[in-house]
Design brief:
heterodimer, A: mainly alpha, 4 helices, about 75% helix, elongated, B: about 230 residues, mainly alpha
Chain lengths: ~80, ~230
């Protein structure tokens, strides 16, 4: 099986997820080995996702957990007192 | 080049973990005790879900204070509705779906825009194309120490439409599986994959040309950002 660049782009998301068939995966890897543009598309997409997934990119506000549990406890206490 | 199932190496998909059943059974046992009156255990149940809960809300409202407010409301709603939790998915997925619904509701009210996620029929990937680069320089994660890069990533995600943002954040930021992302968002898995494809290529298109290598250079980009250009 031979894939052109557009086919590779259309599969790049599922390829990153490892959810393409073995036949497609092999065809993509053959294409990537010979196409620097698609190789750059794959590398950049994957790298950007890795960076986006780093916990430093989206940090939970300081004290979030304490306030969440405090709010819950206040609600539980008020539910107790009104019962 | 090998594909990576979880790009960020985060929480593995529930189906892929050997102890998934054990985890679900542990949750079920805690929930049973909470419903029997040990209500304080609800704190323990939600503790591992805090980050996902916050991110689910933030994915829609893009505002820290609102996301926190939504998370707090979602926790109370989850407690009230715990007897209706059927254990078909992880508790954390169910809790995130509550937060997403609450966030969508608030977003709808504040923006006046309808979010009819479940009614649309996006079956194909369409003609979404990436930024075609001659080369790409790998950006090591240490670069995230630079707040400008973190900010650029957040700004790019914020430019996505809410339905793309939520799947990208749940799947690629939080690390849920496709099935879990579908369960949390209420969309089917096919639709999640299409949205994820579009969201990922949009991110690549938004960021790769500026973060990339030889054309302009990451350091050059930082310099331009610092100079306000």
């Amino acid at each position: 099986m031979t894939l052109d660049c557009k086919h590779v782009w259309s599969q790049v998301s599922e390829y990153i997820d490892g959810s393409v068939s073995p036949e497609i995966r092999e065809a993509i890897e053959r294409h990537l080995a010979n196409c620097r543009h698609c190789s750059a598309v794959y590398d950049s997409t994957r790298n950007i996702l890795v960076l986006a997934g780093d916990e430093r990119t989206f940090e939970i506000p300081a004290g979030f957990g304490d306030r969440l549990h405090g709010h819950l406890q206040t609600w539980l206490d008020s539910a107790d007192s009104s019962a | 080049m090998s594909p990576v199932a979880n790009p960020g190496g985060r929480q593995p998909p529930v189906a892929a973990t050997a102890d998934a059943r054990e985890e679900l059974a542990r949750e079920a046992a805690i929930i049973s005790r909470i419903l029997s009156g040990e209500r304080e255990l609800f704190h323990d149940l939600i503790r591992p879900c805090e980050r996902g809960l916050y991110l689910a809300a933030y994915a829609i409202v893009l505002n820290e204070a609102d996301a926190e407010d939504i998370a707090q409301d979602a926790v109370i709603k989850a407690f009230k509705g715990l007897k209706n939790f059927r254990g078909e998915a992880r508790f954390s997925t169910w809790l995130m779906s509550i937060a997403l619904n609450e966030a969508r509701s608030r977003w709808r009210k504040s923006s006046g825009v309808q979010m009819d996620y479940l009614d649309d029929c996006e079956e194909s990937g369409g003609d979404y194309t990436p930024a075609v680069l001659a080369d790409w320089r790998y950006i090591p994660s240490q670069e995230l120490e630079r707040k400008e890069l973190r900010q650029a990533l957040r700004e790019a995600i914020a430019k996505l439409s809410p339905e793309y943002r939520e799947v990208l954040i749940l799947r690629d930021v939080r690390g849920l599986s496709i099935a879990e992302t579908a369960a949390a968002t209420g969309a089917n898995e096919g639709l999640v994959k299409v949205r994820l494809f579009r969201a990922r290529l949009a991110m690549q298109k938004l960021l790769a040309p500026t973060l990339g290598p030889k054309q302009r250079g990451f350091m050059g980009w930082l310099t331009r950002k610092a100079g306000g250009q």
